[in-house]
Design a protein that fits this description.
The chain is α/β, with parallel strands linked by helices. It has 10 helices and 7 strands. Strand 2, helix 5 and strand 3 form a beta-alpha-beta unit. The chain binds S-adenosylmethionine.
């Protein structure tokens, strides 16, 4: 698992910067009549932020050497879900439980499903094997991760495509359901993403969604969801379940931590303690409400 804490922190910095840039871009547009073809400050920051996402996750793919199939924080209930899993899925239990709870909100059997932000495809593979969709397309911005998925997950009806959540490479009304797990905090134009999800869904189709935000981002996030193009059928604060999943998943995260592979052995103890500290900090933030994690179900009219 990567350091989600750092991921959220960096993304928030970019979001804050792009807000500032949006204001200065307005001034630039008004003043610079002769430089219309030059990129605005906002466009430059958006490009930079997108590059950060690509480089960060490409690095995770390269150094994880095929052992890291789930990139989310995990999920566990009280009492434990005890989701039946094969021996090969067992190491990824907590990440898969988040996928299961998000996707099983509706019946996906015989449906055409798109997952946006599929990461290393562990969730996609599990859902195809257990929920019986007619087809399942996993999309991610990280082309290296998509190449890894294409080699690693060979199942009938499952395919992977490189692409951007904010500009989906599919025609209107081509899917019955769209799944999105712990990826949307990376997007720069969240309302634009919701518009894209709605565009590719057929009428009556479902959007199955889970992600987290810092407390100061909650109001605009939930306003975008409430006023967006799809109808909210249910919402649930799952911060306690994610904090529990994160705690139970700590040893697995330490075992597969990617940065250890590129550092000399004498630094491994320090890396383990950084991973432990990041987990503790993220759990504490989930428990205190500094960060909240939500699961949603939406329908397209
Ligand atoms: C925390 S990982 C979660 C991956 C996967 N859903 C999982 O749970 O294992 C976030 C994922 O979002 C992807 N992502 C970030 N920005 C994206 C974008 N604009 N379009 C599509 N995917 C994006 C990243 O490449 C990464 O794979």
């Amino acid at each position: 698992m990567t350091s989600q804490y750092d991921d959220y922190a960096l993304q928030s910095r970019y979001s804050a910067n792009t807000e500032t840039a949006r204001d200065s871009a307005d001034v630039e547009t008004a003043q610079a009549t002769s430089s219309m073809e030059l990129p605005t400050a906002r466009e430059r920051l958006l490009t930079e932020a997108r590059q950060y996402q690509k480089i960060h996750y490409a690095l995770v793919t390269r150094v994880s050497a095929g052992e890291l199939l789930l990139l989310n924080n995990g999920y566990e209930e009280d009492p434990p879900m005890a989701l039946p899993l094969s021996a090969s899925d067992e190491p990824d239990r907590f990440g898969l439980q988040l996928y299961h709870r998000t996707a099983a909100q509706v019946d996906l059997s015989d449906k055409q499903v798109l997952e946006v932000g599929c990461g290393h495809g562990g969730g996609a593979s599990y859902l195809v094997r257990t929920l019986g969709p007619a087809s399942y397309t996993g999309l991610d911005l990280n082309a290296d991760g998509i190449a890894f998925c294409q080699k690693r997950h060979n199942l009938p009806g499952l395919e992977f495509v490189a692409g951007d959540a904010e500009n989906l490479p599919f025609s209107d009304q081509s899917f019955d359901a769209v799944i999105n797990v712990e990826s949307s905090h990376c997007y720069l134009d969240f309302p634009g993403f919701l518009a894209e999800v709605s565009r590719v869904l057929r009428p009556g189709g479902h959007f199955l969604y889970a992600d987290a935000r810092h407390s100061y981002e909650i109001a605009p996030w939930q306003a975008a969801l409430a006023t967006g193009p799809m109808r909210m059928l249910s919402q649930r604060n799952i911060s306690a379940e994610v904090a529990r999943g994160l705690e139970r998943n700590l040893q697995h995260s330490i075992d597969v931590v990617v940065y250890k592979r590129i550092l000399p052995a004498f630094l491994h103890g320090s890396v383990d303690s950084i991973v432990g500290t990041n987990h503790t900090r993220f759990c504490r933030d989930l428990q205190s409400g500094t960060i909240t994690y939500w699961m949603y179900l939406f329908a397209k009219a």
